[in-house]
C-alpha cells in the first residue's frame, strides 16, 4: 500500500505497489485523474480498494479493462446511517413537520391529524446493501416494501420484500409508492433513471427520498414537481451538482428536506471504513477471497 498520493511517488516505487487504497468520501474522495495518471507505472497492482461505496469518481478505462486487478469498495459501511436517515425523512413528512415548524414560528397551537408509516408503501429503486437496510427499518414500522430489481427472481423468499418488480416496472413502482426511495449508484444505466415520467407517475401525496446519487434523478423535473406541489415533498442528501450552488431554488422550497451529502458522515464512519479495509487486507495476505469485489464494467 502506498502511504502517499500516487503523484508524489517516484515511478520506480510505483512499480512495486500491489495494493492501492483510494481514501476519502464525497468531494474529498480520491479522484480518477491522479490514479489514471499513475496507472502506467502501477504495473504490479492487483487490488484497488475504494474507501467510499460509490465508484463513479474512480473508474477509468485502464482500471475497468484490467482483468488482473480486483476492485473493492466500502459497501455496507454506510448502509445503517443512510437507512436511519431515510426512515427519518419519511417520518418527517408523515408528521408534516414543515407545518409544525410554521406553527411554532408563529406561536400558534395548531393540532392536526398526523399519518403513520404503518400501512404505507415504500418503493425502493436500487435494492442493494443500502436499499435493503432501508427496507429492514421500513418493514419494522409495518410498511409494505416494493423494490425494483434487474432480476426480480433473485428476491424470491426475501422476508423484507412484499414484491419485486423488473426494470420495466419502474413507472408502476412510482405510482404504487407513498415514499419512493432512490438508493442506486450512478452509472450510465442509472443516469436520470428517475425521469420526469417517473416523477409524474408518483401520487400527489408521494414523497421522494434520495440517498443514492443526484445524477440518477432528473433534478429539473423534480424541482418543477415540487414547485407546483405536484408531489408532497422530497428529502435530498445528494444533488446533480455538489456543493449545491448558492441561491439554488431547492434551498427555498418549504416541501424539501435538504442535507449537504452528509447523512452517512457519522462520527465513526472513517474508522469503520478503515476497519473494513484492514480486514480485507488480512484476507489478501492470507490468499482468501476479498469482500465487496465489484463488477468494474457495471460500476457497482
Label this structure with key terms:
7-stranded parallel β-sheet; 10 strands; 3-stranded parallel β-sheet; 10 helices; alpha/beta; 300 residues; elongated
Topology, element by element:
Layout: H1 11-14, E1 19-22, H2 32-38, E2 47-50, H3 61-64, E3 70-72, H4 79-94, H5 97-106, E4 121-125, H6 129-140, E5 144-148, E6 163-165, H7 170-176, E7 179-182, H8 196-201, E8 207-210, H9 219-227, E9 233-236, E10 256-258, H10 269-286
Parallel strand pairs: 1-2, 2-3, 4-5, 4-7, 5-6, 7-8, 8-9, 9-10
Helix pairs in contact: 4-6
Number of strands: 10
SSE order in H/E notation? HEHEHEHHEHEEHEHEHEEH
Cα(first) to Cα(last) distance is 23 Å
Give the overall form.
elongated
Mean pLDDT: 93
Amino acid at each position: 500500500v502506498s502511504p502517499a498520493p500516487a503523484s508524489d511517488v517516484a515511478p520506480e516505487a510505483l512499480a512495486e505497489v500491489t495494493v492501492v487504497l483510494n481514501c476519502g468520501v464525497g468531494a474529498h474522495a480520491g479522484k480518477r485523474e491522479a490514479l489514471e495518471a499513475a496507472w502506467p507505472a502501477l504495473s504490479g497492482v492487483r487490488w484497488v480498494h475504494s474507501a467510499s461505496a460509490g465508484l463513479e469518481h474512480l473508474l477509468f478505462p485502464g482500471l475497468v479493462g484490467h482483468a488482473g486487478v480486483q476492485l473493492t469498495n466500502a459497501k455496507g459501511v454506510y448502509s445503517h446511517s443512510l437507512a436511519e436517515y431515510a426512515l427519518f425523512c419519511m417520518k418527517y413528512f408523515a408528521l408534516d413537520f414543515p407545518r409544525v415548524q410554521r406553527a411554532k414560528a408563529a406561536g400558534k397551537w395548531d393540532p392536526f391529524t398526523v399519518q403513520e408509516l404503518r400501512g404505507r408503501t415504500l418503493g425502493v429503486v436500487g435494492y442493494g446493501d443500502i436499499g435493503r437496510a432501508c427496507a429492514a427499518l421500513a418493514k419494522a414500522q409495518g410498511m409494505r416494501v416494493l423494490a425494483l430489481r434487474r432480476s426480480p427472481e433473485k428476491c424470491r423468499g426475501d422476508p423484507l420484500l412484499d414484491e419485486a418488480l423488473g426494470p420495466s416496472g419502474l413507472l408502476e413502482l412510482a405510482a404504487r409508492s407513498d415514499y419512493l426511495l432512490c438508493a442506486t449508484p450512478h452509472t450510465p444505466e442509472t443516469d436520470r433513471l428517475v425521469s420526469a415520467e417517473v416523477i409524474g407517475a408518483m401520487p400527489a401525496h408521494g414523497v421522494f427520498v434520495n440517498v443514492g446519487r443526484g445524477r440518477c434523478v432528473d433534478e429539473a423535473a423534480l424541482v418543477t414537481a415540487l414547485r407546483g406541489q405536484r408531489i408532497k415533498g422530497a428529502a435530498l442528501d445528494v444533488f446533480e451538482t455538489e456543493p449545491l450552488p448558492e441561491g439554488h431554488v431547492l434551498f427555498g422550497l418549504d416541501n424539501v428536506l435538504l442535507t449537504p451529502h452528509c447523512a452517512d458522515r457519522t462520527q465513526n464512519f472513517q474508522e469503520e471504513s478503515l476497519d473494513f479495509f484492514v480486514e480485507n487486507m488480512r484476507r489478501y495476505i492470507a490468499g482468501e477471497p476479498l469482500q465487496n469485489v465489484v463488477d468494474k464494467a457495471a460500476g457497482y
